[in-house]
Model the fold of this input.
Amino acid sequence: MRILPLNALLHGRRSLKALSLIAIGLTCGSCARFPASGAAGFSAITFTCKVAGKINTSVDSDPSTYYVYDVALSASPDPNPLPNLAPVPVINSSNPNGRVAGSPTHFIEYNSLAPTTSAPFTLYRFAKSSEISNPNDPTNPINLAVFSQSTRGQIINFTTPSTGGDPATLSFTVYTNMLADTDADAKALRSLQVNILSMTRLANQGSGTRVIDALGDSRSVSGLNNFLQINLLRAGTYNNSASFEPTGDTFGGTDPDIDIVDYSITVTPP
Done:
């Protein structure tokens, strides 16, 4: 178990024996409004991620390729879920989705192919193994090969370079009612295991150079096995004040547009 000072709480999957949450700061620099779509009564979670270079889109580079910027989530009613359920980055092409491993329930992807659309962030839900059998990994409660756009809500509060934000930063807000199949299930959620993932391409798009980054020191395989655990019932901000997401730690090569250098995650309970 690692309890980090100030507003940081970073867990490593390999060494973690038990998870313990700490009180965090109560300030929220850019808390989003509750949308009129009915999220009142549910916790809001605002994610902000900054890279060393700029957010790379098909507008900036070869339109036949695109960089991937994801936030992967494991939402749970358990206040201390098992660390092996947490989302971690994909290193090789054997993973069926090419983005994330572990047992994430959802992921949010920035549409770098069409960043100027009115909805540049899309929330996806992974299928449960109980819904669609998973012969490739029968012990995993999540079928990583099957995901679809969530019907539980659209991300409408966001800031991107295309909306006048910083060229290196993405920010958006989701609500806990969007991370469960029913409102009753959402009310029962207690924790969120989080990883922020960036990559020059998906792992299952053939051979070639692939540069990736995630939370923690990504310069080694063991360093890629880190994640954040968020208490959904307590107001506060988790950020990089203790510098546990270092600069210049990309895996597989160097690319400033992939190198995550700062983040914050703010929880605002109802």
